[in-house]
Amino acid sequence: MTLIIASVRPHDIVLTADGRSETIVKGVVTGVDDHYQKLFPIPDHPVVIAHMGENLLGGKPVKAFLAKFIAGLNTGNFTIQEIADQLRAYAHPAIRARLNALGKPRFGVNLWVAGFGSHDEGPSVIETFWKYSDESLLTTERRFSPFCVVPGGDGQFEISKVDWHEIQGKSVDEVRAYHHRIMEQALHAKTDNNSVGGRIHELVITPASWRWTEPPDGTPVEKATTTQSATGS
Fold first, then answer.
1. What is the CATH number of the domain that holds 133?
2. Domains in the chain: how many in total?
3. Which among 110, 100, 202 has a CA at the least distance from the CA of 156?
4. CA torsion angle 62 68 70 72 (round to 10)
5. Is residue 209 a contact partner of residue 115, using CB atoms and an 8 Å limit?
6. Chain centroid to CA 56
7. What are 69-117's pLDDT values in tens digits?
8. Could you tell me which residues come within 8 angstroms of residue 89 by beta carbon, excluding any fewer than 6 positions away?
9. What are phi and psi of 163, to 5 degrees?
10. H or E segment at 64?
11. Strand partners of residue 25
């Protein structure tokens, strides 16, 4: 499935994700894709959507499903909370339909909106999580602000407890190194079927831009940095 790590500090957010996606049929893993993109930056704005869990929504792969949302979003006019609210409204029917079609599985869908929104005083990550409990589809929301380290996905259960002291006063490269140490724990966890693996991809969000520090396959680093202000349109 997934491990995504977010470090949220006053002037930046570092997001690191693994690249493994599993196809599961009747509880059995029937296929593995180790080059799956889970971080989706919004062009020209310091905002990123991260995805964990079921990855076929609205009859499309998550990348295509989110691309339609991003294309219709006037990002520069909204706070991170407002973007998360719009994403929840857009995604909810497709998530409910997909989880119902799968027989209300134990796993769900987790979407993060991370970055610097218009009129926000600082950065934040807003998590929305959909999961069935018995016959009820539960939707929960959490908000993370500086300083914090947030692990997401089922890989979080294979790592040591994170510590925000590891990111306070450190350089971006030191934060990235901390993320990679955490990721290594999950990658080498002694489990029968390790759901964390594949190509690591990573980016850094600042008030004016996002940039890939480790791009997913086929993403040129020199074309991935944005220049739009968080308060632009």
1. 3.60.20.10
2. 1
3. 110
4. -160
5. no
6. 16
7. 999 999 999 999 999 999 999 999 999 999 999 999 988 999 999 999 9
8. none
9. -140, 115
10. helix 62-71
11. 28
